[in-house]
Amino acid sequence: SSSSSVQTILTMATIGDFDPLNSTVPATKIEVTVSCRNLLDMDTFSKSDPVQFGRTEVIDNTLNPDFVRKFVLDFFFEEKQNLRFDVYNVDTRSSNMSKHDFLGQMFCTLGEIIGSTGSRLERTLSGIPGKKCGTIIFTAEELSNCRDIVTMQLCANKLDKKDFFGKSDPFLVFYRSNEDGTFTICHKTEVVKNNLNPVWQPFTIPVRALCNGDYDRTVKVDVYDWDRDGSHDFIGEFTTSYREFSKGQSQFNVYEVLNPKKKGRKKKYVNSGTVSTRNPSQPTSLHYMSPYQMNAYAMALKAVGEIIQDYDSDKLFPAYGFGAKLPPDGKISHAFPMNFNSENPNCVGIEGVLEAYFQSLRTVQLYGPTNFAPVINQVARCAADVTDGSQYFVLLMITDGVISDMVQTKEAVVNAAALPMSIIIVGVGPAEFDAMEELDGDVVRVSSKGRVAERDIVQFVPFRDYIDRQGNQVLSMARLAKDVLAEIPEQLLGYMKTRNIIPQPRDLLALLPCLPTAYEPP
């Protein structure tokens, strides 16, 4: 075959009456990294191309994949949490796993991974009689509460030439260090073809992924020359830290790329090139209030709000924040009025909402966990009071993609589907939005505890898909609004039809004065 891939799928089993996904006990967030070694080679003419399930990441032609994507799980010390890992070799785009080659599986508990020396567990894959399926390796680490992100751009100069018939095709691999001296992969750049002085595209990464909130933790960067057959040539490496990366707003950091083998056997060896990085040109927070342009939250709010406000008679909009410590006592809230008036959370117009948003950023401390259900339930209670068709509620939620209460949120969405309301979710930032896609019922209707939502009421889009490449904010906002609002009329009509609510004649007559009856010359 000309191309192929391996997908690793994680399913969590339950023991007895315990269901960790439905537990309300506070849990520790654990990040699990997965690698495989010596996988079965199911392809005749090429190695397997490992990829994580539900992701587009593909590692070409290797039987020893180190997956960039992590599994984030809730850990409960007092409970047994069974895990099963299945490995597949995928040669088609079918979502039906029975159509792909099964490479092996492994069972363990989350406690076994965490309790292993250095929280590193290596086990043999099994499931194919008479075959050695290779091994699977897990490393686990408790996640910090750091929610910062960093944007950086790197370039290199005079890298070693590795290809006989051309220049190198370099790419970078980032690793964060572990306590036992090992490293965990956390990011890969794109490949720049045929260039010894490459400039890679800017990328944005959560600081938590890079160093788990420890600014002085060692970050190792490997430089490789990409080869089609997967046997990428090692050019060299350098080490740094997030604090070093972020030094000085306009300062260049220059790192020597060193190849230990070449350094050991060549007396005159200096380096295999250099890599430079300029500190991000803008502050790391997605909520940063720039004097020159709106942040992504404000753009999404303004884009959607300025259209839907035309259909609201009083132009009063209740606005809530979720995930913050509030003054004066630092109490964590998941549904606080952004104008800090619990008796009247309404803001006048979308401009009033924006004003309240910016004011709240100056007042509260952003804090996890990020729970969606309280805000959804807050709006649902309002919608439940007016089910005669005279009002329809649209909840706009803007999020960085982190969600801590998926089970409760699914239940809230299922309940809300029976009410006159729709939910728009706009994802901002660089995160993978797998959880948000799960809430969007376009493909599979959201369900909870055996109940399926009677309507699809959630529309999710990642804001980054709508950013104009030339930096035109107006165009970005117009594209976003068009897509996220496209489903609202159908969702509104769906509710009205299922309730046999017929538009009143006065509502139709109110439009007549706006319609031209005859042509009159100026």
TrEMBL record:
Top-level taxon: Eukaryota
Keywords per UniProt: Calcium, Metal-binding, Repeat
Calcium found in the keyword field: yes
Gene3D superfamilies: C2 domain (2.60.40.150)
Matches recorded under InterPro entries: C2_dom (IPR000008), C2_domain_sf (IPR035892), C2B_Copine (IPR037768), Copine (IPR045052), Copine_C (IPR010734), vWFA_dom_sf (IPR036465)
Residue ranges of domain C2 in the record: 1-125, 132-255
GO terms under cellular component: plasma membrane
PROSITE patterns listed in its UniProt record: C2 (PS50004)
A biological process from GO: cellular response to calcium ion
Molecular function, one GO term: calcium-dependent phospholipid binding
CDD domains on file: C2A_Copine (cd04048), C2B_Copine (cd04047)
PANTHER family per the UniProt record, alphabetical: COPINE (PTHR10857), COPINE-9 (PTHR10857:SF112)
Family: Belongs to the copine family.
Descriptive protein name: C2 domain-containing protein
